[in-house]
Amino acid sequence: SITSAGFKNTDGSLSLLGQVFGSPSYAAAAGINDSGSTRQTVNGWTSWKTETGSPLADLREQYLLLESTEN
């Protein structure tokens, strides 16, 4: 679970507002547009936060570092 409103699926996509998004930025844009914003772009890597407040970008960086040390 990323937040109570959006969920990460097993294939890495995000589900939000009854839709599935392949990018955290597309999902974030849909979320802010649903709340009334007219913005067309959003950086989903920094907009989405974990339950502890860490941006999704931090989790991605940790994962990439782990992958690079295992290979």
Describe it for me?
The chain has helices spanning about 25-35, 45, 55-70, and strands at about 5-10, 15, 20. It has a three-stranded antiparallel β-sheet with strand order 1-2-3, with helices on one face. A hairpin with a 2-residue loop joins strand 2 and strand 3. It is α+β, with helices and mostly antiparallel strands and about 70 residues long.
Question: What coarse outline follows from CA principal-axis ratios?
Answer: elongated
**Termini, distance in Å?**
28 Å
Radius of gyration: 13 Å
Number of strands: 3
Could you give the order of strands across the largest sheet? 1-2-3
Series of H and E elements: EEEHHH
Low-confidence stretches: none
The largest sheet, given as strand count, sense and whether it forms a barrel, is: 3 strands, antiparallel
Strand content: 5-15%
Structural class: alpha+beta
What is the tally of helical segments? 3
Instruction: Assign a percent range to the helix content.
Output: 40-55%
Mean pLDDT: 86
Structure keywords:
alpha+beta, single chain, 71 residues, elongated, 3 helices
Summary of the model, kept short:
With 71 residues, the chain is α+β, with helices and mostly antiparallel strands.
